[in-house]
Queue: 2 jobs
Job 1
Amino acid sequence: RKKWKGSPAIPPEYDLRKDVRKIIAEIDKAGIKTIGKIDPQAFNWPISRKESLEVLNYFAENLLQHFGDYQDALHTEQRFLFHSRVSFAMNSKMISPKEVIDRVLEEYRKEKAEIDISQVEGFVRQILGWREFMRGVYWREMPEYKSKNALDNQNKLPDFYWTGDTKMNCLSHAINQSLEEAYAHHIQRLMITGNYALLTQTHPDEVDAWYLGVYIDAIEWVEITNTRGMSQFADGGIVATKPYVSSANYINKMGNYCSGCTYDHKKKTGGNACPFNSLYWNFLDAKKESFNDNPRMGMMLNLLSKKGEEEMEEIRDRARQIIENPDQF
Ligand SMILES: Cc1cc2nc3c(=O)[nH]c(=O)nc-3n(C[C@H](O)[C@H](O)[C@H](O)COP(=O)(O)OP(=O)(O)OC[C@H]3O[C@@H](n4cnc5c(N)ncnc54)[C@H](O)[C@@H]3O)c2cc1C
Ligand code: SF4
């Protein structure tokens, strides 16, 4: 998994822009409450089977070649990178997951000299592995799954999730993009917005409401398993073997958000210290009892135990300020 540093060149997003003013007018007339921003003259999502197949073909022919390498990359100027953007077409059943996989395998067989099998494996795994797994978890675990809160998180989701108005560059990019495009790629959802919500110990109901409202591909069976399970660890480990939390270190490693940020990604405490850092250690400290029996958390808890009480007090204090006043950061 690589950081994207300007090359290889990313082909432009497939252009399906269409005028949807008539539909927007109908939605407005019906008094339906909406969030986010839309350019009603340039709606760029497939709305038919024909368009869905075009998006899939474009991915197979132009983006698949680098998908695996850059699927975890984060970049201020590139919202879609080499991602396929086929989730909405699949979730709304305009195309089937089998069709998507078959088309990708067909392209691979045709272009073996150009497309390495690792790129194809990285893609097929997301659909045949994660997507199908989430479907199974949903049908096995619902309706109890919907109220799981294994870590007993109780905080409110910061208001800036609904406005994008925050000084934290990574969150500002991921949230504004979500409000404008109804799309963020997996690592933005997991390691930026999801990570921050978990580190600030936000109630999973609030996190679910946001994810379900904001993304074009948000259908409950695949949204809730990702949000409550994979991202918030609210199911206590049914979906993931450990919580996906990180400090600024990972965010800086995978992208360029930190270089244009108000905050210093290397600092844990002090006025300009990156909020993710104190929140990360504070989260581990606050929830350590829940992870005592989890071997995958051993290394993190071991590092935590080496921190002195004075340092931990400063970290807890900084984290408390952030959690109590999220919209000031
Ligand atoms: C907190 C959180 C919430 C999410 N909510 C949704 C949601 O509401 N609907 C949704 O379809 N996906 C969701 N995902 C999974 C994933 O982020 C999206 O499927 C993906 O970003 C869609 O963009 P893409 O089509 O360009 O995907 P690509 O990166 O091109 O991946 C290809 C396909 O793989 C499948 N896929 C990849 N990861 C997952 C996964 N973890 N679970 C299920 N399918 C996966 C998707 O169908 C996707 O279209 C969520 C992930 C997280 C961490
Ligand atoms: S310094 Fe912290 S808040 Fe700023 S972009 Fe990096 S991780 Fe995000």
Job 2
Amino acid sequence: MEYPPLAELVKDKWPSDVLQRAKELQAEIGSIGAYSHSKGVPLIRKHVAEFIEERDGYPSDPEDIFLTGGASAGVSLLLNVLITPNETGILIPIPQYPLYTATLSQFNGIPIPYHLSESDGWSTSLAEIESALAEAAKKGVKPRALVVINPGNPTGALLDLTTMENVVRFCEQHSLVLLADEVYQTNLHSPQTHPFHSFKSVVRKINSPVPLISFHSISKGVKGECGRRGGYFECTNISEEVRAILYKMVSVTLCPPLSGQIGVDCMVRPPKEGEPSYPLYKKETETIHAALAQRTKLMADRLNLLPGVSCVNSPGALYLYPKIELPDKAVKAAEALGKSPDTLYALELLDETGICVVPGSGFGQKDGEHHYRLTCLCPGVEQYVSALEGFHRKFVEKYGGL
Ligand SMILES: Cc1ncc(COP(=O)(O)O)c(C=O)c1O
């Protein structure tokens, strides 16, 4: 797509389906240096709708699809549209991916945090969401939407069908828009026991009128092409009037990057059995999934053996979110430096080992608790989990033990 004459030069070397795909997109798009339709290239939106139909078993309309510069652009647009400054509350999970708190703060929305239950594998509880809502009502906050991240970041948790149905019914009862962040939908470590279900399929299955926006991205999965900025959102039960407003809003920024849109096309149309690229695609994909699952489990198992550390072995996404007990002296030392204890831990870990983790205070954690987020992507996990173990023991000892 960047250099069409290349197709001729490599025609005997590259798989024919790759060239065929590029030519098809080329015929539709022309130069990828030009703007596209503001909602994204129509043919690519059609392919997204076909992908969703195949995934869920329910119809999807390309007109309900907006291609975006990554999921973040979609989330930001929707929060912008939903929020009346200093009035609107948005229910968000804690811990959460900081895009939500940051964007809420940008648009002067009010976060209504609901806590995920670590002792129950970071599950989402309706009772917890209800009490968060009641708390917000007491403060005069007007709730407008509920955010769910499934599979979760930073927790890696996956929602089960019953919880999903309850969440949908809850949104119906309270007239909330459901914002489903499903960017990790293919990062599943044990799909037999922990499968992914999309909120779109649940909404359709129970025939719910709840307004739903579902986000997906090329940044995750096995490709992880996050720098290209590609993603989409699908509108379900959203009126034509609101979709027209969304269209007007996306028109302001003209169009999402074309290379990101092409990335979305590749994500939603992977090679099929019988096509020349399929064997390599299958091999690479399976290898990456297996490595992620194995690394995640290995790290969780090893971390759980450390004194003062507990770690839920996540069934999805790319992370672990261990809880660490820290010595009082470490907490005081952090206070003296004007840092949170988890930040002190993360900084010392970085200095000592070169391992970069994200302190839990960036995602949200209960008062008095300390966490950090670890990614399970890197090869050589055995080596770096040993370094983590060594560091943890030394840190605890340095600050007087637990
Ligand atoms: C839960 C979640 N949502 C959205 C995003 C942003 O994705 P994108 O790169 O598509 O903007 C991320 C990135 O890490 C994420 O973890």
